[in-house]
Structure formats: structure tokens, C-alpha cells
Specification:
By secondary structure, the chain is of the alpha/beta class. The radius of gyration is 18 Å and the shape is globular. The protein has twelve helices and ten strands. Strands 1, 2, 3, 4, 5, 6, 7 and 9 form an eight-stranded mixed β-sheet that branches. The chain has a two-stranded parallel sheet with strand order 8-10. The N and C termini lie far apart (57 Å).
């Protein structure tokens, strides 16, 4: 039995692809094989609803959004309002995910990224961190938790691999939408990361402007694409052959290579975002 880790990035409405991805993973692997998930932003919602056995809630909330009534998704689900209330209500009970689940958040107060163990939180704490994890910087003032201002971690670490680097995992399934061939900091870790990033680059900017009618189409693409790759890579139980298949799959993608995803990259993003957000916060305080 393989020990599987999963990384889900944030990408607003492209989370519909992650819904399809998780459905395929659920159909392909045994439940006990999924050991650890690390996520950011909308990836957190997909992972947590899946982990507590309520993936249908992710779809239900998605489809209840009326663009004419609620506005654009990146303003709707990340700020106070009926959609965020619906999201939080899903986590009103002490339901634990069946895997370890770490969620990247940006602690603006301490100027650092934190990986919150959602599997150790009670319902009240989960709801608090859900609000923080989807609070979009520059558009939201965030959530105050234990005296710290918490915001969406995707803006400082949108491919949160670090919680999985020290785990005893055989393979890691990583979903992101940047259309680059990222290398992770640890070469041994990178060699077992199966990268899913061959998603449509829609010129309609579906990542920013939400259209409920596209959910089923996007989820189906995520499901079909994921299942196709999994069937190609895991057609044997031999680990050496699987790792070789992972490399072939990653190399086949028509995308540019990017430098390794390192601590320095994350720290630089934190510094840049901190300066921008501090300026925005100052403007908000002046208006108040």
C-alpha cells in the first residue's frame, strides 16, 4: 500500500478542477493510502470538504453563487457575506479530515507564512482559520486570531510543499495552475512529486470571474485528466518504475522550467506582499 501526499494550490474558481482531481484520487486510491494534504486558499476548501466526507458541500456552495447577485468570486467568497457564512457552516461541527491537513496562511502580524494543522483544530478554530485562509490580501482586512492578522496564504506560498517534505511519503500529487515546471528545494522530494499543471489557460479569466455554469465542465476535465495520468503512472507496483513514470510525465508537459521553489522565494514574496498590504492597511485606517 502506497503512502500518498497531496498539494493543492489556490486559484480562485480553478478550484473546480481540484474538485474533479480529488474525485479521481478517491476513485483510484484506497482511502488509507492518502496520508497528508497541504493546501492553500480554495485548495483548502476542496481538501477539507473532501477530508470530512462532504465534497458535495464544495459543489453546492459553488453552484449557489449568483454572479449578478453576489458579484465576482474573488470578492464574494473571501469577504464577509452569505457565501462565506455558508462555507463556515460546513465546518460547524468537530469533523476531522481522515488525513493530516496543513493549510498555508499568511500571518501578516508576524510577517511569515504558517501551515495550520486543520486536523488538530476544533470546529470553532476551523471556522476562524477558514475565514483567514480565504481572506484575500489588498481586498480584505483578514481575520484576527490570537491577536494576529491572518490572510490567504496563497499570496505568499501558493504551492505549500514544506509540510510534506519531512513526511514519510512514497509519492506526492501536486496540483497548480502556473504552467511552469517548478523544481522543489529538496531533490529527493522533487523526484517523487507527480505534477498536475496541464490545465486550460482560459482567456476569459475564469480564475477571476466566476461562472457557475462552468463548474461541471471544469470538474470533469480535472477528473478525466487526473485519472488518465494516474493510470499511466501507477500501472505497476514497482516503485522504481513508478518514479521513472513520474519523471516522464513531468517532462512531457509543454511548459517552461522555473528555478527551484525555495525558502528564499517564499520569503521574498512575504516581504513584497507585506509592503503592499501595510500601505493598503494604512489607507484603510486613514479612511476610518
Amino acid at each position: 500500500m502506497a503512502k500518498i501526499g497531496i498539494i493543492l494550490s489556490g486559484a480562485a474558481s480553478k478550484g473546480a478542477y481540484e474538485y474533479g482531481f480529488l474525485k479521481a484520487v478517491n476513485d483510484f486510491f484506497q482511502k488509507d493510502e492518502i496520508k497528508c494534504v497541504s493546501s492553500a486558499s480554495i485548495g483548502m476548501l476542496a481538501a477539507q470538504t473532501y477530508g470530512i466526507g462532504k465534497p458535495y458541500e464544495f459543489e453546492r456552495i459553488w453552484k449557489m453563487i449568483d454572479p449578478k447577485k453576489h458579484g465576482r468570486l474573488f470578492l464574494t467568497y473571501g469577504g464577509p457575506g452569505p457565501i462565506r457564512d455558508e462555507i463556515c457552516e460546513v465546518f460547524a461541527k468537530d469533523n476531522k479530515p481522515f488525513f493530516e491537513h496543513f493549510v498555508a496562511v499568511w500571518n501578516f502580524t508576524k510577517s511569515k507564512v504558517e501551515y495550520i494543522p486543520f486536523h488538530n483544530l476544533n470546529a470553532e478554530q476551523t471556522q476562524q482559520y477558514v475565514k483567514g485562509a480565504i481572506a484575500i490580501p489588498l481586498l480584505s482586512s483578514g481575520e484576527i486570531i490570537n491577536g494576529d492578522r491572518i490572510l490567504d496564504g496563497a499570496f505568499v506560498d501558493n504551492i505549500p510543499a514544506y509540510p510534506l517534505m519531512e513526511k514519510d511519503l512514497d509519492y506526492i500529487l501536486c496540483v497548480y495552475f502556473d504552467n511552469h515546471k517548478y523544481f522543489f528545494e529538496n531533490e529527493a522530494f522533487d523526484s517523487k512529486v507527480l505534477k498536475f499543471y496541464d490545465f486550460p489557460n482560459d482567456k476569459r479569466l475564469e480564475m477571476m470571474v466566476f461562472t457557475p455554469d462552468t463548474f461541471d465542465e471544469m470538474a470533469k476535465y480535472g477528473y478525466d485528466y487526473t485519472l488518465k495520468v494516474l493510470n499511466e503512472v501507477f500501472k505497476t507496483d514497482d516503485k522504481t518504475e513508478i518514479l521513472a513514470a513520474i519523471k516522464r510525465n513531468n517532462d512531457l508537459q509543454q511548459a517552461e522550467y522555473k528555478p527551484r521553489l525555495t525558502v528564499d522565494v517564499v520569503l521574498n514574496k512575504i516581504n513584497v506582499m507585506t509592503r503592499k498590504y501595510a500601505k493598503r492597511m494604512s489607507n484603510w485606517e486613514k479612511k476610518d
